[in-house]
Automatic annotation (TrEMBL):
Residues 21-69 form the DUF4266 domain. InterPro entries: DUF4266 (IPR025362). This is Arginine decarboxylase.
Length: 70
């Protein structure tokens, strides 16, 4: 199973290396909704709150207070 995933990853890397983007298509790709992470600040905030809450549920981790505050 792992070999299959490696082969697919290598093949997809080779296939992506061969495509070109025309200059008039770069404007479309530069739009915020085309980003892999369209809202990085919101994702970071959610990660911080999630990490704080999860740290409060475990014993001995020592990180975060569990209130979700900064």
């Amino acid at each position: 199973m792992n070999y299959l995933l490696i082969i697919v990853a290598v093949l997809s890397a080779f296939l992506q290396g061969g495509c070109s983007v025309a200059p008039w298509e770069r404007g479309t790709l530069a739009k915020p909704q085309m980003a892999l992470e369209p809202n990085p600040l919101q994702t970071e905030l959610r990660g911080h709150v999630y990490g704080s809450r999860e740290a409060a549920t475990t014993s001995g981790s020592g990180a975060g207070g569990g209130c979700g505050c900064y």
